[in-house]
Design brief:
Helix content is about 35%, strand content about 35%. By secondary structure, the chain is α+β, with helices and mostly antiparallel strands. The strands form three sheets. Strands 1, 2, 3, 4 and 7 form a five-stranded antiparallel beta sheet that branches. Strands 5-6 form a two-stranded antiparallel sheet. A hairpin with a 2-residue loop joins strand 2 and strand 3.
């Protein structure tokens, strides 16, 4: 299993928008379906003011983002969300990976095991 976390920054005027669209009853079903089809096992988003930290886990993150990058609903979602951000990661097709401000793991405990 692969995992990573990265940092993003919201524009002040879009903090509420971002939080609202991520509520269980408001997130697009196509986004959840795309995450499942891409192979994401876990995703957590933490928000404090303008700061966002996203943690994700998949068997193969590169393959997950390749799928996600080709998914129409995901592209529409990302375009909307990116407009609300001061800083936002993007998929670099030449590099073949997401470009982001990584947040390093210093401790990861899950189900009785240390995973770092």
């Amino acid at each position: 299993m692969e995992y990573r976390a990265y940092r993003m920054k919201l524009k002040k005027e879009h903090i509420r928008d971002y939080v609202e669209v991520h509520k269980k009853e408001k997130i697009w079903k196509a986004i959840i379906d795309g995450m499942i089809n891409a192979g994401f096992e876990k995703m957590l988003i933490f928000q404090s003011g303008q700061e966002i930290i996203l943690f994700e886990e998949a068997k193969d993150l590169k393959k997950a983002y390749e799928y996600y990058d080709g998914d129409d609903a995901s592209q529409k979602w990302d375009k909307m969300i990116a407009g609300w951000m001061e800083s936002y990661p993007y998929y670099d097709e030449v590099k073949g990976d997401i470009v982001f401000e990584e947040v390093p793991v210093v401790f990861y405990f899950d189900k009785g095991k240390l995973l770092h």
